[in-house]
Amino acid sequence: MELKNKKDGVIRESNITQEFVSEVANKLGSIPEVETIFYYLYAVLHSPTFRERYKEFLKIDFPRVPVTSNKKLFESLAVMGKTLTNLHLLGQNPFDESKTALDDTKIWAISTGSKDPKGIADWQVAKIKEEERYDSQSKRVYINGNQFFEGIEPEVWGFQIGGYQVLDKWLSERAKEKRSIADDLKYFMKIAVSLRETIRIMKEIDEAIDAHGGWPIK
């Protein structure tokens, strides 16, 4: 099977086999688009219950994603999977231009600020202790002791991917080079918003599955 990006004319081959598409079609009684199947898979893989329930298997083998025969659940999860995909690509999904929280800065609830930036290069990321980097009470992420981002929840700051704390890792890499992020302030905020929305949607994925019989998915 092939997917064609209408924007650039590039042909991309899908790694979802025809056999799997047929399996999904037999379960649902209709043939969904390949992109929809991908979004469904992406949603299930972000289910906190799936990750916990099968964590021992996930340590030793590729994930095996169950296919539901419930068309309503399939479609609901696919919608959430699409939203997650667009968030994780920071709104740059070449196959979809759906709006996400990234498109509305009014709902980001994240701002920048400073106490007294004198004597410090503008938004230069400094090497500071982890406990000084983030203040859970003020919800501030400090860049150099004086300049900071405000409005970042503790669960967003602590969110990990692949064993790395995402926001801290991003800043730590730039601190090594003493880089200024003056031109990347919006980019950092988009990452934080993406993580915040990911946490919310992951909970909604589990809620949707629970509402349709829970695990194992049927």
Structural description of this entry:
The protein folds into two domains: 2-101 and 200-211, no CATH class; 103-188, no CATH class. The chain is 45% helix and 11% strand. The chain has helices spanning 18-28, 34-45, 48-53, 55-60, 71-88, 130-133, 154-157, 166-176, 185-211, and strands at residues 2-4, 11-13, 111-114, 134-135, 140-142, 147-150, 160-161, 164-165. The strands form three sheets. It has a four-stranded antiparallel beta sheet with strand order 3-6-5-4. A hairpin with a 4-residue loop joins strand 5 and strand 6. The longest helix has 27 residues, at 185-211. It is elongated and about 65 Å long. The relative contact order is 0.14. The mean pLDDT is 90.
Taken in chain order, the helices and strands follow as: EEHHHHHEHEEEHEEHH
Measured distance between first and last alpha carbons: 27 Å
Unreliable residue stretches: none
- Gyration radius, rounded: 20 Å
Shape: elongated
| Share of helix, binned | 40-55%
Number of helices: 9
Q: How many β-strand stretches?
A: 8
Placed side by side, the strands forming the largest sheet appear as 3-6-5-4
Structural class: alpha+beta
Report the sheet with the most strands, covering strand number, pairing sense and barrel closure: 4 strands, antiparallel
Strand content: 5-15%
Instruction: Provide the number of structural domains.
Output: 2
Mean pLDDT rating: 90
Task: List the main descriptive attributes of the protein structure presented here.
single chain, 218 residues, alpha+beta, two-stranded antiparallel sheet
